[in-house]
Design brief:
Elements (H helix, E strand, L loop, with lengths): L2 H6 L9 E5 L3 H7 L4 H21 L4 E8 H6 L2 H17 L1 H6 L3 E5 L7 H14 L6 E8 L1 H17 L10 H6 L11 E4 L18 E4 L9 H13 L13
Parallel strand pairs: 1-2, 1-5, 2-4, 3-4, 5-6
This protein binds farnesyl diphosphate.
Farnesyl diphosphate binds next to α2, α3, β2 and α5.
C-alpha cells in the first residue's frame, strides 16, 4: 500500500477508476458569505487543484470536472459567463505546471463553438503539452452537454455510414463510446455532486450508466481532500452488480 493509500485506509483495488465531479454551489457559498458570485467561482477554482492532485496521487486513472454546461453558457448573465471564462483562462495557465509535475494528461470535453478563442487556445496548449504524459487523465467539461455530445457522435457515425466507410451492422456500444468526447477514458464509476442537488444535469449521460452517485451538502469551494476521502470510502463499501442478481451472503 502506498503512503497515500494508507492515509486513506483503502487499497488501490477498491478505488474507482474514473471520478466525475459536478462542482456545484459556488453561487450559494458566495451568497451565504455576502460575497459576489464571481468571488464564489474564484474560490471554487482554488478548490480544484488539491482534489485533482490527490486523485492523481491515489493513482485514480481519470477525473472529469463539470466546469460549465452548454446550458450555463447560454442561460447565465453575460457578465457572469465572461468572469468565468477569464477565470478558466487564468486557471489553465496557472495550473499548467501542476499538470506537468503530476504527469497528468489533459483534455477538454465539450463544444468549441461559442467559446472565446483565448480560452480555446489555453485548452489546446494544455492538451498539447501533456499529450505524452502517462499519469491521470484530467478532462475539463467546458461548454459541455451530454445530449449534444451524443448528438455529435450520432452525426459523425451517420456521416460515416452515408459515405460507405461504416456498415450499420458495425454500430455497437463500443463504437458509440469511441465517438464520444470521452473516447478511451475508463467509464466513470463514481459521480460526486456537491451542494446537495440530486440530479445529473446533462452530464455524461451515457457514461454514468452504472456509476455510483455520492452527493454532499457541502458547497464546492468548501470541498476538500477529507470530503473526497469520505466519498471514496463510501464508494468502496458499495456493492456493485451491474444489473446482475445480488450475491447471496450466507
Ligand atoms: C456551479 O456553481 C459552478 C459553476 C457553474 C462553475 C464551476 C466553476 C468552478 C468550480 C470554478 C472554476 C473551475 C475551474 C476548473 C477553473 P453555481 O454558480 O451553479 O452555484 P449555485 O448553484 O450555488 O448558484
Amino acid at each position: 500500500m502506498s503512503e497515500r493509500e494508507s492515509q486513506l485506509g483503502l487499497p488501490a483495488e477498491v478505488l474507482p477508476h474514473h471520478v466525475a465531479i459536478v462542482m456545484d454551489g459556488n453561487g450559494r457559498w458566495a451568497q451565504a458569505k455576502g460575497k459576489s458570485r464571481t468571488v464564489g467561482h474564484a474560490r471554487g477554482a482554488e478548490a480544484v487543484l488539491p482534489i485533482v492532485t490527490e486523485c492523481a496521487q491515489l493513482r485514480i486513472e481519470a477525473v472529469t470536472l463539470y466546469a460549465l454546461s452548454t446550458e450555463n453558457l447560454l442561460r447565465r448573465p453575460d457578465d457572469e459567463v465572461a468572469a468565468l471564462m477569464g477565470l478558466y483562462e487564468q486557471y489553465l495557465i496557472s495550473e499548467r505546471k501542476q499538470l506537468l509535475d503530476n504527469n497528468m494528461r489533459f483534455r477538454h470535453i465539450g463544444r468549441r463553438d461559442g467559446m472565446p478563442p483565448t480560452v480555446l487556445a489555453e485548452l489546446d496548449r494544455n492538451a498539447e503539452l501533456t499529450q505524452q504524459n502517462t499519469g491521470m487523465e484530467l478532462a475539463l467539461a467546458l461548454n459541455y452537454g451530454s445530449r449534444q455530445e451524443i448528438t455529435d457522435a450520432v452525426r459523425t457515425i451517420g456521416e460515416k455510414v452515408a459515405s460507405g466507410e461504416l456498415s450499420p451492422d458495425a454500430i455497437d456500444e463500443s463504437l458509440i463510446e469511441n465517438h464520444l468526447y470521452t473516447a478511451h477514458l475508463p467509464e466513470p464509476d463514481l459521480l460526486i455532486r456537491t451542494a446537495g442537488e440530486k440530479r445529473v444535469s446533462n452530464f455524461l449521460l451515457w457514461q454514468i450508466s452504472y456509476a455510483e452517485i455520492w452527493v454532499t451538502e457541502t458547497f464546492w469551494p468548501d470541498f476538500d481532500v477529507e470530503h473526497l476521502h469520505t466519498a471514496l470510502r463510501d464508494y468502496a463499501r458499495r456493492r456493485r452488480n451491474f444489473g446482475a442478481a445480488p450475491v447471496a451472503i450466507d
